[in-house]
From TrEMBL:
The lineage of its organism: Bacteria, Bacillati, Bacillota, Bacilli, Bacillales. Residues 11-71 form the HPr domain. It comes from the Bacteria. This is HPr family phosphocarrier protein.
Length: 82
């Protein structure tokens, strides 16, 4: 894993931690709490496309912030609207 990947994981987790909403990353059949750095280390290993589920009182702001940080690190993410 590169330092760039490490930086992405830390920034993604820190960004998610700013919100009260639940932010869950879906990859294949795995669901990872984005606020968990350990979970991200085991998931964000390759440049794949990820689905993001965001629910809570500040969900709209959280969605925008998460898309921005994933895009900054060249990670493909799609917000799942439920």
């Amino acid at each position: 894993m590169t330092n760039a990947n490490n930086a992405a994981i830390v920034e993604i987790s820190q960004t998610a931690g700013k919100f009260r909403s639940s932010i869950v990353l879906q990859y294949d059949n795995k669901y990872i709490d984005v606020k968990s750095i350990l979970g991200l280390f085991t998931t964000l290993l390759d440049a794949h496309s990820y689905d993001l589920h965001v629910h809570g009182p500040d969900a709209e702001d959280a969605k925008k912030a998460m898309v921005d940080v994933f895009t900054k690190h060249n990670l493909n993410v799609k917000i799942v609207e439920e």
